[in-house]
Fold this sequence. Notes:
By secondary structure, the protein is mainly alpha-helical. The chain is built from six helices and six strands; from the N terminus they run βαββαβαββααα. The chain folds into two domains: 2-63, no CATH class; 106-162, no CATH class. Helices cover 51% and strands 12% of the residues.
Amino acid sequence: MGVADPNPHAPGIARAREMGIFTTPDFAELYGLPGLNLLIELTGSMDIREQMIGAKPIHVSCIDHRGARLFLDLIRIETEKQQLQRESEEGLGKERDSSQKFIDSLSDKIMALNRHRPIYRVNKSFIKAAGLSETALHEKNVTRRPATLLRALYRRCPYLPL
């Protein structure tokens, strides 16, 4: 890896120097780097772009400033997407916690199913009436068989309206 810039005070080359990356004022010196397989031209100069393409070894690929900008934009979009996804998941987690606290505060026995019928959530009254712990609901894979759980609960509490 290396960075070339004729201006030794340019921010990119100064940062590369701080990171211990090879730096040079002449991009042609980059061709001698072992393992070099990609050049990225960031100057925006068509003259430098043409010089790089004309002088590069055949096994080295090139991306010009427009291609580099595209990659940068794609990386930025992906980073923003991941940040939004994290924020959304955090918001959903808070919403789930809040709604769980609400249904736990009710004395009625509550079991919520999702559209595919597995148990999505139960409240503490339901767990107590079923004689199970929260972990037992998941360990026994009971959440996939709500009817089985309801039958067992009804056997324990026949007076329970279903």
